[in-house]
Amino acid sequence: MALEVNRANYDEVINSEKPVVLDFWATWCGPCRLIAPYIDEIAREYEGKAIVGKVNIEDDNDDLANRYGVKNIPTVLFIKDGKVLDKQVGAAGKDVFVQKLKALL
């Protein structure tokens, strides 16, 4: 299961030595619900190798979305050493997310 990322744990997550995958989502977003199982599967499959987190923009975390210029959801950011190196805006197949994560490992 993906880690819930919010203001309280954001700095710790983003400053990890491991690559970070952040999924910005909302409960009312159909495409977000579509990719949610992929994000959770990737979190399990890459446990210990990467941090896979979800940022619910409905839970007063819109400042985190604004920090990265997230205008559409789902937006999945691929971060290494605190820098966004890739992103996926909109729904995509699991293989797209895995390929982008593997590029960071």
Question: What would your notes on this structure say?
Answer:
The chain is α/β, with parallel strands linked by helices and 105 residues long. It has a single domain (3-102), classed as Glutaredoxin (3-Layer(aba) Sandwich). 34% of the residues lie in helices and 26% in strands. The protein is built from four helices and five strands. It has helices at 10-14, 30-45, 62-67, 94-102; strands at residues 3-4, 20-25, 51-56, 75-80, 83-89. Strands 1-3-2-4-5 form a five-stranded mixed β-sheet. Strand 2, helix 2 and strand 3 (51-56) form a beta-alpha-beta unit. The longest helix has 16 residues, at 30-45. The two termini are 20 Å apart.
Helicity, as a percent range = 25-40%
Compute the number of helices. Answer: 4
> Class in CATH?
Alpha Beta
Strand content: 25-35%
Order of helices and strands: EHEHEHEEH
Strands side by side in the biggest sheet: 1-3-2-4-5
How is the main sheet built?
5 strands, mixed
Second-tier CATH architecture: 3-Layer(aba) Sandwich
How does the helix and strand content classify structurally?
alpha/beta
Please count the beta strands (DSSP E, at least 2 residues each): 5
Would you tell me the overall average pLDDT?
A: 95
Please indicate the count of domains: 1
CATH topology: Glutaredoxin
Task: Please outline the helices and strands.
Elements: E1 3-4, H1 10-14, E2 20-25, H2 30-45, E3 51-56, H3 62-67, E4 75-80, E5 83-89, H4 94-102
